[in-house]
Write a structure and sequence with these properties.
The protein has two domains: 207 residues, no CATH class; 162 residues, Rossmann fold (3-Layer(aba) Sandwich). Helix 3 crosses helix 5, helix 5 runs antiparallel to helix 8 and helix 6 packs across helix 8. The strands form two sheets. It has a five-stranded parallel sheet, sandwiched between helices. A two-stranded parallel ribbon has the order 1-2. The protein has 384 residues and is α/β, with parallel strands linked by helices. It has 13 helices and seven strands.
Length: 384
């Protein structure tokens, strides 16, 4: 819309192409506001629009890799449920894409103004038009450029100032002022609001992702994803300064099989000392191929940030982001009935591991009864 500047070499007081761009964005902002109001009103879940539905179906099909000829009724029903459940996520992603595209377009317009003005000297156009008198032109001009001028500390010339500058032959100074005012107007009316909408929708997307109806980080979906990719359903147990007894190993092995299925591969390594060799834990870990990594600590030990916390940070950095690292604190060494001491030790462990954003799971692995199994499965099936 600014191509005509190349041949004309003239910048007008009101550039109607830029005015159209600003008005279009104001219309979009108005529609966004009313859409937000309608969404906030009661009335149940709104059905997805045709665009969101099409995008959700494309994402569903590309993720599963099914061809049309392989579609079955159960797959169609699954796709329909996916479209409904993911409508909020799809809508947020679509809005982010469109607002980001508008930001790129407006940034290109601003860049075009200045890059066109660098090699070529422009002169100001006549402040008026066939249909607008000089006063109305001044009002429209002031309405457009005043917010940008206020933000960037620019001067807004009035009709008399424009006439005086043209009379004195200071066309270059007036042209520069118009370039800066037009660019500031696009920034204020388009770039900043669109950026705010991108930030708002990104936060909304982040919130929805954390509260998505499907617990995609749960043990079932984690194992299903690994099987779909042809990966091993493997769990690595990393005991830290703790020699696990055969009974503790057997109970933990049984709990993992009850959670992930009999096909799970469980690697229980020798105790990691992390004393003389700070990297001896690395023999247990590969970058890929695990559905969970379980460091096991002894509750009788005193939690330390520079050892236990450091190990958790190293483990978290060494594996895929989607693989859960769940620190288990075995309380089997505490005698029954000593609840007050156990509670004090649990608080101390939480205080230390909270600093590395780790939530310890306290289990009596020596007993390994149904209560511990339920706690273990609830934690692995929790959507992080």
């Amino acid at each position: 819309m600014t191509d005509y500047l190349t041949s004309k070499q003239e910048v007008n007081v009101i550039e109607f192409s830029l005015l159209g761009l600003i008005l279009w964005n104001l219309l979009v902002f108005t529609l966004v506001f009313f859409s937000f109001v309608l969404t906030a009103l009661p009335g149940g879940t709104k059905p997805p629009g045709w665009l969101n539905e099409m995008i959700a179906k494309l994402r569903f099909s590309s993720a599963l890799g099914f061809r049309v000829k392989r579609k079955r009724p159960w797959l169609t029903a699954c796709q329909h449920n996916w479209v409904q459940l993911s409508n909020g996520l799809t809508s947020a992603r679509t809005k982010i894409a469109f607002h980001a595209a508008a930001i790129c377009f407006a940034a290109g317009v601003v860049a075009m103004l200045y890059t066109r003005g660098l090699p070529t000297q422009y002169h100001p156009g006549v402040p008026g038009s066939t249909w607008l008198d000089i006063k109305l032109t001044q009002q429209v001009f002031s309405f457009i450029v005043t917010p940008g001028a206020w933000l960037f500390g620019l001067q807004v010339p009035d009709v008399q100032a424009v006439a005086d500058m043209r009379a004195s032959g200071d066309n270059l100074g007036l042209t520069r002022a118009l370039f800066h005012l037009h660019a500031a107007s696009v920034i204020v009316w388009v770039l900043l609001p669109r950026s705010a909408l991108v930030i708002f929708n990104s936060l909304h997307l982040w919130r929805l992702s954390r509260a998505f109806p499907l617990p995609l980080n749960a043990a079932y979906f984690t194992a299903l994803r690994a099987a779909w990719r042809g990966q091993r359903i493997a769990v690595v147990v990393v005991p830290f300064r703790y020699e696990m007894t055969p009974q503790v190993k057997a109970n933990l092995h049984r709990m993992l099989e009850r959670t992930y299925g009999m096909s799970v591969e469980i690697a229980m390594l020798q105790s990691v000392l992390m004393g003389n060799d700070l990297w001896d834990w690395k023999r247990a870990i590969n970058k890929e191929g695990h559905v969970a990594v379980l460091p096991v600590f002894n509750a009788t030990a005193t939690a330390e940030g520079n050892t236990h916390g450091a190990l958790l940070k190293l483990l978290r950095a060494a594996i895929e982001a989607e693989t859960p690292v769940i620190p288990i604190v075995d309380t089997s060494a505490f005698p029954l009935g000593n609840d007050e001491r156990l509670r004090s030790r649990q608080i101390q462990w939480r205080q230390i591991l909270d600093k590395v954003r780790a939530d310890p799971l306290f289990l009596d692995l020596g007993r390994g009864d149904e209560t511990d199994l339920s706690t273990f499965q609830s934690r692995l099936n929790r959507d992080e």
